[in-house]
DNA sequence: TTGACAAGTGGACAACGGTCCGCTTATAAT
DNA sequence: ATTATAAGCGGACCGTTGTCCACTTGTCAA
């Protein structure tokens, strides 16, 4: 109820000009959390460290920890953030130096680089994926406020990148028309951290073999030209 | 300690001729468990039902439940078993009626049928996959004694089937040489229940679109011939 | 400086998955 | 029928994830 007697400012600035910035002590805690988590993860492995442990080691309550990070996955995402940014920049840079190449070549470059990146970050990425699917997170484009703004979900970005390159390749007549969004998703499925790890540890494939396989099927399956003189060796 | 006075049978039958058969009451419990689980799953969804609940509803202790099923995944596997057998037989039957077709056509048939099967069994299959990867089950060929003997892990079977068909296609000169084991794994990755569901619910792809996409990439990527006029009908 | 209030905090609590272990009982050999 | 024994049983118990809520404290505005 609005009380007319009170001197409510006319156009009261409901706009909430900018979100009250993070309290200083909170920021300090945040730092400590990341630090401690990084340390514990390094020492025992991501999977073996519980949120409770992290809270204790950081000498804060669980509630505090969960306030900042809804789950271990979120924490890992924050830890990864830096790497991701670097990766994204590198990729972006490479793309811009390679504009003169064929879209297919660019696509290949993106795939290979992404695979390497995922392969290097398996530990953290796996935790992310894991918690996401524990929560039935099958509604991928989730907002997730706790994430630094502007940092969209990473996989989404890669997806769009792949899709874009596929479209470009089609537009340039490098390949026949195809279902770009779904094809991008297929590629993404093959680069899923958990799957990657499974194939490496249980099947014993190494990264190069996987890259070769993906190349063989995709770059051929997409390409119109039957000959494969330019394709990398199947080498197995 | 062996007491020499006792008439221990000379070559005592250490062989344990056949495992003492399941006690009758235990068998009854098993039935009840399956029944109750099926019911609860149907009512609330697989994910929403806890082992504790199942035990309670079946009026047995948790220990009893866990004795038979190491986890929810195992229970679901048992529930699925029947369907799986039927599916396997159907597939086998179809394969034997289609021996005169090209290996590639057979491969296509297997892929399509498997996709449909997975799609129909998502609920249960998902629980299986989920628990398997919760346990870091990245060592797939796990023995898992609690499974009906002779019933190997299902995915393994499909994998071998796919691999075999790929090899056959290569041997017959239908396609260029490739890395059959890994290619089979790629296909399997795309048929993963969790991934399937994700793509359907989050991305909104329907099964036909996915089949079309996989066909486009794989049957083209593998095939030597650029045209695709010979590709089999969708037959559903 | 003061006070209001949202942001921040901590720890109790609950649900779930899963293990353990001591007791009971069906079964098979005697 | 008796008995040894392994199969079966139940529920207390543990660790983990995640929620809740009463309390404290930094911050901003007056």
How much of the residues of chain A is beta strand, in percent?
under 5%
Structural class of chain A: mainly alpha
Q: Could you name the ranges of chain A where pLDDT drops below 50 across 5 or more consecutive residues?
A: 1-18, 139-151, 224-236
The largest β sheet of chain A comes out as: none
Task: Sketch the topology of chain A as an H/E string, one letter per element.
Answer: HHHHHHHHHH
In DSSP terms, counting alpha (H) and pi (I) runs of 4 or more, how many helices of chain A?
10
Whole-number tally of structural domains of chain A: 2
Distance between the termini of chain A: 76 Å
CATH class placement of the largest domain in chain A: Mainly Alpha
Q: Give the integer mean of the pLDDT values of chain A.
A: 79
Described by the principal axes of the CA atoms, the overall outline of chain A is elongated
Oligomeric form of this entry?
homodimer
The CATH topology of the largest domain in chain A is given as Tetracycline Repressor, domain 2
CATH architecture of the largest domain in chain A: Orthogonal Bundle
Helix fraction bin of chain A? 55-70%
């Amino acid at each position: 109820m609005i009380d007319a007697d009170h001197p409510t400012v006319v156009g009261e600035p409901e706009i909430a000009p900018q979100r009250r910035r993070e309290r200083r002590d909170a920021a300090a805690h945040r730092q400590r959390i990341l630090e401690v988590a990084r340390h514990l993860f390094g020492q025992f492995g991501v999977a073996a460290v519980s949120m409770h442990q992290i809270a204790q080691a950081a000498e804060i309550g669980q509630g505090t920890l969960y306030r900042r990070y809804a789950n271990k996955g979120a924490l890992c995402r924050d830890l990864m953030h830096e790497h991701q940014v670097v990766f994204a920049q590198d990729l972006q840079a490479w793309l811009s130096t390679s504009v003169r190449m064929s879209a297919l070549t660019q696509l290949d470059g993106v795939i290979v680089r992404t695979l390497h990146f995922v392969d290097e970050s398996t530990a953290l990425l796996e935790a992310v994926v894991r918690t996401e699917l524990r929560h039935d997170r099958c509604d991928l484009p989730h907002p997730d406020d706790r994430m630094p703004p502007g940092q969209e979900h990473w996989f989404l970005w890669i997806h769009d990148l792949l899709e874009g390159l596929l479209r470009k390749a089609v537009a340039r007549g490098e390949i026949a028309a195809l279902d770009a969004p779904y094809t991008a998703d297929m590629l993404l499925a093959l680069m899923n951290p958990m799957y990657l790890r499974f194939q490496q540890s249980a099947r014993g494939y190494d990264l190069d073999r996987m890259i070769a396989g993906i190349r063989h099927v995709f770059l051929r399956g997409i390409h119109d030209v039957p000959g494969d003189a330019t394709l990398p060796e199947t080498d197995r």
